[in-house]
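Hi V.,

You were right to ask for the full record rather than a summary. Here it is.
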Amino acid sequence: VWDDQFLKCDGPEVLRLPLTPSADGSLISSWLRDFALSFQKAPNTLTSPINVLPLDNGAKIVYLKSGFEYSQGWDDNKDSGGEGGPNDPAAAEAARASTLKGKPDGALRIVYEAEPSPRVRAVRADMGPD
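Predicted structure:
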């Protein structure tokens, strides 16, 4: 019982939906894959670009950097050396954004699990340093 409770810390877990014991795992896994893939079709209602990777028991939704993320290197108080100059913060930010665009920025695994009891779990994944 405790192992299952501590499993919520892995990721961490975002959602856990218990299912009936008679749930059809292959049907649910297929539905989860189709559900995740539907976010790649127009009209896409997500505000972040994504890539969906099908898994045997569901799917992984990989969020991609848009190039407009918060920059920890931005400093408004720093002397920029003039607009367009070698130390122009806007030019540096644009260069940084272009190198980040399209790179993975975390993920969400949505999967069916049969053990210890049938359920659907959504777990954050790939949350590492850049």
